[in-house]
Amino acid sequence: MIRLYSTADGLVLEQAGTYRLAPRSLGIDGVFSAANPAGLVLAAFTNGTETSAPSALLAPVQSQEVWAAGVTYYRSRTARMAESKEVGGGTFYDKVYEAERPELFFKSAPHRVASPGGPVRIRADSFWNVPEPELTLAVSSSGKIFGFTIGNDMSSRDIEGENPLYLPQAKVYDLSAALGPCLVVTDELPHPGTVISIIIRRGGEALFEGETTIGQIKRPLPSLPEWLFRDHSFPNGCYLMTGTGVVPPDDFSLLPGDEIRITIEPVGTLVNTVTQHRQP
Predict the structure, then answer these.
(1) Helices and strands, number each (H, E), in the chain
(2) Which DSSP state fits 279?
(3) Residue 227 and residue 232: Cα distance in Å, rounded?
(4) 235's torsion region: left (phi>0), alpha (psi -120 to 50) or beta?
(5) At the top level of CATH, which class does the domain 65-275 belong to?
(6) Is 210 helix (H, G, I), strand (E, B) or coil?
(7) pLDDT score, position 96
(8) Helix (H, G, I), strand (E, B) or coil at 205
(9) DSSP notation for 60-111
């Protein structure tokens, strides 16, 4: 297992507490398009220059689209049904939870992804906004899962609940996705008992805390990229968020200034602060 950090100086690789700056020739696109991403990263670590732990981080993304799976947890199913019950869309989510075909949707272009420590946005035309903490798979250009990171799928629940056809507006906008703090490169998927936890703080006070485990995901993780790659090509690979099992109560909505902390080991903790202003 090697942790890959993206920085302004290049890729920093960490294994067993040792940090090395990868050769400049290695970029994230090169990792995602390699026949053997784990082997390539290990070789880069071996040939890298020893350095210190990075402080300022970028999202571990270059040309990768970010996609997402929905209704993979029972808790997500019930929350989505509740938010759309007034327009009769609840049965859609019940059916997709039981269906063979998963819900898959485009989440973000690379330039819209928020970095660790940076801002994530809530829409100005929405009054019910929540973060969604998600295990996020790194998938190579050949469709192979070769690692994972933390994803935050920011969502406007009132817009999606008004009409399921509004899903792209509820999910896809500037800084509506965050990734990081690192990409764990490994041939082993996380253990089912791996915990996904979230804390939302406002003015230093914890307003919401919750957790779930990866084992609560209904679908086998490899099945999600298998469906995604059936009629899609990704020359530089992609990221695939795997759904959320932690949903704040219905009376909660994010406000500008809130701090979101999502933890999945061995990735670490992804921290972002909420804003309502567009990026420059």
Answers:
(1) 7, 18
(2) P
(3) 9
(4) alpha
(5) alpha beta
(6) strand
(7) 78
(8) strand
(9) S-SS-EEEEEES-SHHHHHHHHHHTGGGT-HHHHHHHHHSSSPEEEEEE-GG
Q: Which helix (H) or strand (E) holds 36?
A: none
Q: Are 23 and 13 in contact (CB under 8 A)?
A: no
> Which residue positions in the chain have pLDDT lower than 70?
74-92, 94, 278-280
**Cβ neighbours of residue 239 closer than 8 Å, sequence gap 6 or more:** 61, 64, 65, 66, 67, 136, 137, 138, 139, 149, 151, 179
Q: Are 129 and 155 in contact (CB under 8 A)?
A: yes
Q: Are 212 and 190 in contact (CB under 8 A)?
A: no
- Nearest residue to 136 via CA among 244, 5, 3: 244
Taking a C-beta distance cutoff of 8 angstroms, is the pair 152, 131 a contact?
A: yes
**What is d(CA 157, CA 209) in angstroms, rounded to the nearest whole number?**
19
- The closest alpha carbon to 65, from 233, 241, 235, 238, belongs to 238
Other beta carbons within 10 angstroms of residue 186's beta carbon come to 18
pTM beyond cutoff 0.90: yes
**What integer pLDDT is reported at residue 170 of this predicted model?**
96
- Residue 83, pLDDT score: 55
The domain spans of the chain are 2-51, 65-275
Return the axis-axis angle of helices 74-83 and 90-98, rounded to nearest 10°: 160
35's enclosing H/E stretch is: none
